[in-house]
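To whoever is covering the structure queue this week,

Two jobs came back overnight. Logging them here so there's a record in the thread.

Job A:
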Amino acid sequence: MEMNRIDPALRTATTRLPVPNMARSFIRKGVRLAMRFIPARDVPGVKSYPERIGRMRVQVYRPEGPPPRGGLLWVHGGGFVIGSWRQDHRHCAEIARELGIVVVSVDYRLAPEHPFPAALDDVHRAWIWMQTRADTLGVCKDRIAVGGESAGGGLAAGLAQRLRDEQAVQPVAQWLYAPMLDDRTAANGALDELDHWVWNNASNRVGWSAYLGHAPGTVSVPSYAVPARCDDLAGLPATWIGVGDIDLFHDEDARYAARLHDAGVQTMLDVVPGGPHGFENWAADSEPARAFRRRASEWLSDTLTATTSHGPA
């Protein structure tokens, strides 16, 4: 993909970003190991601490000051095969402080060692934990959103579908950064010819194959494994989807947003010109990233405010 399609403010950071080959298991393991050493520095105004749900870890972020306005269950990205709560530590802490909400970041199991439904089960378990601990966390059960980035966004979307069908307490919103929603993208060999920055279709195929336990694009997949394959999107929570127009996931995300809208779901699609995959993380201090995150935060804040003002107490 031509460099001139990338926002000029992101070009230098993009060319410096290492893009590991996810097909090599030793590279995946090396990346996972490196992520254990990402510093989780204190953020003023936020108390951060770990909790255990069985053998699974979640990291809790509680703002200081007034009682929390709501909560967010956050799911990190990594193509289902890498990733850690640590990579989003700063983001989760800043959201907790800025919006005055409790954020719980889940460290779910990774594929291929733990294929579907392991990761989704972990995210579901974290949601139930937030519900049962709502009083302790200081949040209302019906004022909790789900969100995530990339594969984490796909897991958040799958969770929303599962909770709807279980008729459990529903998330007040889905907050999805460049969500990984459709395995059929990975099965499209024509996309291999396009050199998508940061996350290309070769890596996409590795991620989906590891997660599903078979090649992507088969006739059928298990329920909730591939959110874009769900036939009925009615009844899902208000949704924000943000993605760059040169991101591999742009087309599948735009289609999902259109289908949500057609199903009567309040939906906001924020497309960033010249935005490669995950730019809001690895170029977090750039103007495009700051503006993108500001719009995302405003949407989530407005949605929580509307729920607090008009929803059940």
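Job B:
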Amino acid sequence: MDQLIENRILIIDDDQELCALLSDWLGTEGFNLTCAHDGASGLDLAVKDSFKVIILDVMLPGMNGLDVLRRLRQQCNTPLLMLSARGEPVDRILGLELGADDYLAKPCDPRELVARLRALLRRSHAVATESLLQVGDIRIDTDSLMAWRADEPLALTQSEAMILRALLERPGQLVDRQSLSRQALGKALGPYDRSMDMHLSNLRRKLGPHTDGRPRIQVLRGRGYLYTS
């Protein structure tokens, strides 16, 4: 498959100069960038077309980025990196709660953006040797990342599904925070990076407890996480 088709990226940002710069930069790195400059048209493109990753700015005219993200996650689980202005941690936290897979502060270093995009693409292309992984009443298709609780589909983001897969591969075993982040999110966590905590909080809420009330994912403060069976 053509690399430019494999690496199709949608950026939704009203800064047309930034979009032009990113198009040139990402083009030299093998990405094919499509731009939308407002929330409504960006959402329409994201739903109707096929992109490997979406880059979404928070501050957009009309429909803001968080509203776009909220509506987008009702229709698809395309990996999404959110851009947020410096000094707005609440937007970044809310974005992760709504289903963003990663975030960067603006202005961002194009080299870091490329690294984050490649990490998201690697996670999208990751294929396990066994297609179906099941522990108790939770199962996940390790190719499509679709998951179920009993026969009920679970609406997981890609990041949540990757975390679940990593934990189900080692049920009852402690997985430290950095190892889980590298395996599931494709990055090391910085000292103030709360993305793993937000993804795990969302995942635990969606999974719900075991039938006996025990949490499915146990958090051992300062040590890591384990999936209880």
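Note for Job B: Confidence is low (pLDDT under 50) at residues 1-5.

Please reply-all if you pick these up so we don't duplicate work.
Q.
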